[in-house]
TrEMBL record:
Entry's EC annotation: 1.1.1.93
Protein's recorded name: Tartrate dehydrogenase
Keywords attached to this entry: Oxidoreductase
Superkingdom of source: Bacteria
């Protein structure tokens, strides 16, 4: 029996509804595959911020450090400004643990209706690899002259050679393991100064991965192609902000942003990696028990793969596909009437 120490951070809103669903799935599939989990649950959230004045304790990262992986729901909720909740929890974990790759796969499952008629089940199966610790999400800048006519906000985008190269290498290597195609999201028509640098690095790294054919698309045109012809993509690599936007768009193309998973990886394994659905805390549906747990469950499957249990991971994604293909049990975002709980129970029956 292999045991893994898992830190659970359900967070806010539907994060507290989908993480328990993912945990049920982990326990069930773990029991079948000789894997057990020791969980530690952290109540770090906006509720904690309102109560104690901080999203997490000062030694939060040290406490997480002892775990093999982190499973997070979502953070951010009305009552605490987003910049406070996000810079107080999510971003420090991604940066502090050098989770510089954010892997966000997407598939159109059989039985799920894509809003695009051309996106037949099975035809869309690609991965967005997002740079996760620098780029447009930089800490350099701020707001000045609040309330005055001269009020202004400035933020410097920061792209480092080392930071871009390492995420590119991850993306090229992933593309080589898949169908050998990579698309780089850019905006290199001379307007955004950082992007010609990004493009140069892509061309340089490509020379180290001769088995991969690659191209680049301007982010605006790329967004249109995600909608018009999502089948053409395999691995799409983008900066922090571009990758963020593309992954919600990809999820919507596949039927719902409630489906999409994310792995925040520290590929070297020096620090725990973190797994979380792409979606947020969804305050508009929180507390009603109707959130789609698939994003969290698929994230848990990515965690299993990361922890060295690829068969268990595939078993979970197969069960996800089976429920969608063979039953009409699904949550309202996918046109069904099932609750989070009912959907999870149906999925467990198919594990
Ligand atoms: P959101 O993803 O929470 O919601 C967008 C829309 O998608 C809503 O209509 C919501 O009901 C729907 N939705 C999302 N997940 C769903 C699911 N699993 N099942 C069914 N429907 C689902 O995005 P938002 O409204 O922009 O953000 C809400 C809060 O979440 C903000 O505070 C934001 O900062 C935060 N957020 C956190 C994370 C994170 O922790 N990783 C990610 C995104 C947003
Ligand atoms: C995501 C989220 C976060 C991001 C926000 C909440 C800071 O949208 O994980 O996709 O932009 O990274
Ligand atoms: Mn996002």
């Amino acid at each position: 029996m292999t045991n893994h120490r898992i830190a659970l951070i359900p967070g806010d809103g539907i994060g507290t509804e989908v993480v328990p669903a993912a945990r049920r799935v982990l326990d069930a599939v773990g029991a079948e595959h000789g894997v057990s989990f020791t969980y530690r649950s952290f109540d770090w959230s906006c509720a904690r911020h309102l109560r104690e004045g901080a999203m997490m304790p000062e030694d939060g990262l040290d406490r997480l450090r002892e775990h093999d992986a982190i499973l997070l729901g979502a953070v951010g909720y009305p009552g605490v400004p987003d910049h406070v909740s996000l810079w107080g929890l999510l971003i420090p974990i991604r940066r502090g643990f050098r989770q510089y790759v954010n892997v966000r796969p997407i598939r159109v499952f059989e039985g799920v209706e894509s809003p695009l008629r051309s996106a037949e089940p099975g035809s869309v199966d690609f991965v967005v690899v997002r740079e996760n610790v620098e780029g447009e999400y930089s800490e350099i800048g701020g707001r000045l002259n609040r309330g005055f006519p001269e009020e202004m906000a400035v933020q410097e985008a920061v792209f480092t050679r080392a930071g871009v190269n390492r995420v590119l290498d991850y993306a090229f290597t992933l593309a080589a393991r898949r169908t050998g195609r990579l698309t780089s999201a850019t905006k290199s028509n001379g307007i955004v100064h950082t992007m010609p640098f990004w493009d140069e690095l892509v061309a340089e790294r490509a020379a180290h991965h001769p088995g991969v054919s690659w191209d680049q698309e301007h982010i605006d045109a790329l967004a249109a192609k995600f909608v018009l012809d999502p089948r053409r993509f395999d691995v799409v690599v983008g900066s922090n902000l571009f990758g963020d936007i593309l992954s919600d768009l990809a999820a919507a193309v596949a039927g719902s942003i409630g489906i999409a998973p994310a792995a925040n990886l520290n590929p070297e394994g020096d620090f725990p990696s973190m797994f979380e659905p792409v979606h947020g805390s969804a305050p508009d549906i929180a507390g009603r028990g109707i959130a789609n747990p698939l994003g969290a469950i698929w994230s848990a499957a990515m965690m299993l793969d990361h922890l060295g249990h690829p068969e268990a991971a595939t078993r979970v994604t197969d069960a996800m596909a089976a429920v969608l293909a063979a039953t009409s049990v699904r949550t309202p975002d996918l046109g069904g009437t099932a609750s989070t709980e009912e959907f999870t129970t149906e999925l467990l029956a198919r594990l």
